Amino acid sequence: MTDLSAAPGAAGRAKTSSILEADARTRRRNAAEARFKLYGMLAVATGVLALILLLISILSNGLSSFRQTFVTFDVPLSAETLDPSGNRNPDEMSKVSTFGYSPLILNGLKEALSARGISVEEVPDADLANMISRAAAADLRDFVLANPQVVGETLSFEFLANGRIDGFFKGRVTYESAERDSNVTPGQLRVAEAMVAAGLMETRFNWGFITGPDASGQRPESAGLGVAILGSFYMMLVVLVLTLPIGVAASIYLEEFAPKNRFTDLIEVNISNLAAVPSIVFGILGLAVFINFAGLPQSAPIVGGLVLTLMTLPTIIIATRASLKSVPPSIRQAALGVGASKMQSVFHHVLPLAAPGILTGTIIGLAQALGETAPLLLIGMVAFVREYPEGLPQGLFDPASALPVQVYQWTQRSDPAFVERASGAIIVLLVFLVLMNAVAVLLRRRFERRW
Amino acid sequence: MPVLWIVLVVLAIGLAGYVLGRQRALAGVGGDASHLHSLPAYYGYNGLLFAVVPAFLVMLVWLLVQPVYVENRVSALIPDSAISESSTRSLVMSDVRRVAEGLDAAVASGAMSGDFARDLRTDLTDVRARLGEIGVALGSDVSPEVLIAAQSYRATSGTLSMAMTLVVIGLALAGLATAYVRTTPEYRARNTVEAMLLALLMLASTIAILTTVGIVFSLIFETIHFFQKYPWQSFFFSLTWRPSFEGGSDLGLLPLLWGTLYISVIALLVSVPIGLFAAIYLSEYAGPKVRAAAKPMIEILAGIPTIVYGLFALITVGPLLRDYFAEPLGLGTSSSSVMTAGIVMGIMLIPFVSSLSDDIINAVPQAMRDGSLGLGATQSETIRQVIIPAALPGIVGAILLAASRAIGETMIVVLGAGAAAKIDLNPFEAMTTVTVKIVGQLTGDTDFSSPESLVAFALGMTLFVITLGLNVFALYIVRKYREQYE
Amino acid sequence: MNDMRLTERNVTSSEIKISARQVDVFYGETHAIKKVDVAIPDKTVTAFIGPSGCGKSTFLRCLNRMNDTIDGCRVTGDILLDGEDIYDKRVDPVQLRAKVGMVFQKPNPFPKSIYDNVAYGPRIHGLARGKQELDEIVEKSLRRAAIWDEVKDRLQAPGTGLSGGQQQRLCIARAVATSPEVLLMDEPCSALDPIATAQVEELIDELRERFSVVIVTHSMQQAARVSQKTAFFHLGELVEFGDTGQIFTTPKDPRTESYITGRIG
To answer: Which fold has domain C9-260?
Structure first.
């Protein structure tokens, strides 16, 4: 029990050293062990931290986009300006452009301000008009043309505030920044504050962001995701309708029927390689084959859907094959044993048992497709689209945008309000993804079978 | 007849096939199904498939071939003299298509009668103005050659579409009749139906091959096109990238490749150590609770779309790196940089590396661990000296796959790396990549005859070849490695 | 049973190397080992026998704390190595395992060269001062494992390329190279053919000169052939422990007798 007898040399370590105390070498080795373990913990922590940072960055930038500043006041719809001929005929009234409506809004605003005793001396009329969204006049015009009988009345309207004013209430714009900004003046901000105090202006939840169409670069406040969501929905529909049958059919063939030969080997190699081909290459394929060769329209959900289908197929085939493989052979043998044909055993027994797995794989594949951006840029989905596509099936051929592409477009615009909008769009996208994945997880939990 | 209507008609015939086939089979045995060779439904399916499958296959092929045929025929009608110096045949053809579509729209909206559109002459009518009235805007006046070609285009298309309708519906009816005649109680309907089904399943599985073929062809044709207009030596070896649509562009691949590789290397430097260590920690050290919490969180990173990472790079990481590293160190003032894109891409690749490594580490048999621990090795010694060497081929494969991802990644670099093509060592400088330029050259108004647009296909080809090579090699290594432990 | 060569054997050492007192092992809720007392002498081959699932391997793995690597495994009671409790908080299992080496059921050479396999232990424990010394240790260990002549010309060849019997002897050489005091063997011959088994058994008998060897086996014949002491485990309990000859000829417990005569197993 003493290490005095320890002989140096080949034995190196004392033969009878106590195991109760660590020798120097063991201590060194244990320190190395602890360091190694620490690296591992740091790596995991970095990964988790990156996720948290990413989410915080998106949420802190984007949550405010769901709230918008609105201005509410009475607008006198003067008949002389809006309907010079006086017969309330929308066709003739449509000759009055938005420039005819702007002064009415400005007058209404000025009256509302003076009625509340808010001084506007330091703010010239042009600046005052600019506090309201540039979209206001067009919105008002659309409303009046749809309801010609209101001309001549004075009605209360709710308008979006200009993006800078909105940014002021969200902390993006301050008095200092307004000094340097040619698009907003401190005077406007002071009036805005007074308007909030007087109840003319308020910031609240804005459905328009989710349902409305995109808007041009000068009016970030009225830009919405409606067209993009609808476009994405149409594309997902195409992807679902095409990938599910084709993917399942291909998987059944490869897993259950395919003989082992050169041809099936070729298919296998192709599937595993396609799963790793960069998505932008699929965009090039879509451009060359679907648009230039087959002559399908640009920006159409059908083309996006087809491209995403080709991209998603390998994922779905791989998932489907895994879940077919997990059905034990005893089931197939049992079916064959009672005289079912091979095809019957697959369609009556194997496929239903594999269905939850297939569905889970499909949803995950769809979620991937929903977030895909790069290939859509090449097939013209970046176009500025303000019109909602029509209903199905015609809508598949109408120009539309897509959620992730809308994000990209907004990042390309100069007004900083679009950063908030892009982050908000990402939140919407992530909510869809979380929902889809939650459904997939639930399905897996609910139907998971261990053989 | 619109395609949708043809589809519906064929489906209706198919449905009739189902009902008729089933009825005839049952009638043959006086309603007693037990005397039939197959279940009655199979006779129905037999009728359905006979009616529908050949008709749809022919229609599909027809729809693919018809535009090419019409294009070639009409293109031959345009004399060389009608193509001006600055134009090309394909540009003239796109004019022809526009005019033909315009005439179609005019006829459809009732602004012209069908006969009028067919007999239209440029010397009698201002075609551009007439089409403008119904909302079809043309870039220039319509020359007589173009109008004649457009009218021929319409006529040929119309005839062919009519022929297709007849052929397809005729085929469906013929199929129905064949199935009906063949249906007898002894007829092996199940075997026939299953054979057809098997053929359909097989057809579905060939779509993977078709996609690859499609990719390769769409890249090759336009790449050849590009190299006819731009010397390949300059593309592969020129050190400058300066496209200008007025001509005289420099379209050198090297600056783009440099940016791509630089960013990918940084991304791998971030993701490989973190991903590998995270995989090791989670599979060898972490308790069940930590694993249950941390593993899904890291995997979430893999489910986040790349556009989200792109935005993260653009609004958070970029400004952060600029304000705290690049500017204080005097290395640059750009928020988009190689570093920004590289780090964010690295984060994106962490789960990719870690889940692949996790699989690979878990494939090392427990006996190896026991053997090493039984000799008195610490866990880290076991990992470093036994597990990692044993798993090395697999891990190399995983890293290669990650590299191929990094090289092909688009949105992060579009938003995070910048657009300036240059060869520089400073990682805080904005540089650009192959994928960014593919997007840049192919979005917006593109003219598919100029080398400035076509170069995107050559870039795509380069990208495809590089990533395919990496993938094939990596998958080969990984498969070899798996076999070793099976 | 006719190939049993039961002879009275000299237990060359009476010094106790490992003694276990009231050892219980739990896997989660399962009580795998119940109140086991055993004293394993030095320079002796001790065999643990018993039907499958009786706990003999589990107990063996307690002796160098390999059970630590299994989640949810709990050991109570005392196991003393040279009078020191190996489950003491101060004990580093790594240091313990260097003293109590282990050979496993299936040959598990590392995917490295034969040389590196044997040198692995000495390297991590820092037993050699230089290349030459390491070479000596490797050669000595391979000689002790009776495999030197077969592999001396291909030390750089991968260990996984050897035959099953050679692999197992390589693993024994690997365990011997760290000069342990106790060698635990968990059914070392179960994956080997009869010829390789005979070679390994012969080797075990030689190893007795330097180490205390504990071997788990499900083959009674093997226990009878190689061991001096035998412990019979049944359902997690140590039923009987004594000289091998005595256990096989005049078992005291009826359960031992039933097992020996082939009625349980």
So the answer is: Rossmann fold (3.40.50)
Mean pLDDT to the nearest integer, B467-478? 88
Contacts of C97 in chain B (CB under 8 A): 373-376
Could you say which residues from 126 to 185 on chain C have a Cβ atom under 8 Å away from some Cβ of chain B? Answer: 171, 174-175, 178, 184
Strand order in the sheet with C16-27: C30-41, C16-27, C73-81, C84-85
Distance from CA of B390 to the nearest CA of C (A): 6
Region C149-171: what's the mean pLDDT?
89
CB contact under 8 A, C97 and B378: no
B341: which residues sit within 8 A by CB, 6+ positions away?
B263, B266, B267, B313, B412, B413, B416, B417
Bridge partner residues of C102 (DSSP): C184
B381 contacts C110? CB cut-off 8 A: no
Q: How confident is the model at residue A146 (pLDDT cuts 50, 70, 90)?
A: confident
Q: Which residue has the tokens 């290397």?
A: B265
pLDDT tens, position by position, A228-264: 999 999 999 999 999 999 999 999 999 989 888 888 8
Q: Does B323 touch chain C (CB under 8 A)?
A: no
- In angstroms, what separates the C-alpha of C227 from chain A's closest C-alpha? 25
CATH architecture for the domain at A226-447:
Orthogonal Bundle (1.10)
Per-domain boundaries in chain C: 9-260
- Residues of chain C with Cβ-Cβ distance to A20 below 8 Å are 84, 88, 90-91
CB C173 within 8 A of CB C96: no
Which domains are delineated in chain B?
3-205 (no CATH), 241-485 (1.10.3720.10)
Nearest to A16 among C82, C127, C133 (CB): C82
B202 and A CB contact within 8 Å: yes
Q: What is the distance between the alpha carbons of residues C187 and A446, in angstroms, rounded to a whole number? A: 43
Distance from CA of A42 to the nearest CA of C (A): 23
Does A26 lie at the interface with C, CB-CB under 8 angstroms? yes
CB contact, 8 Å: B387 with chain C? no
pLDDT of res. C8 = 45
Local structure of C210: helix, strand or coil: coil
Domain with CATH 1.10.3720.10 in chain A: 226-447
What gap in Å lies between CA B6 and CA B224, rounded to an integer?
Answer: 38
Q: Which chains does A contact via 3+ CB–CB distances below 8 A?
A: B, C
Give A21's contacts in chain C (Cβ within 8 Å): 90
Task: Identify the top-confidence range among A122-126, B50-54, B464-468, C29-33.
Answer: B464-468
Chain A hits for C92, Cβ within 8 Å: 19, 22, 26, 30
Chain A residues whose CB is inside 8 A of the B475 CB are 272-273
User: Rounded to the nearest 10 degrees, how much is the dihedral formed by the CA atoms of A141, A143, A147, A151?
Assistant: -50
The pTM assigned to this predicted structure is 0.85
* Chain A residues whose beta carbon lies within 8 Å of the beta carbon of residue C126: 12-13, 25
Nearest residue in chain C measured CA to CA from A17:
C99
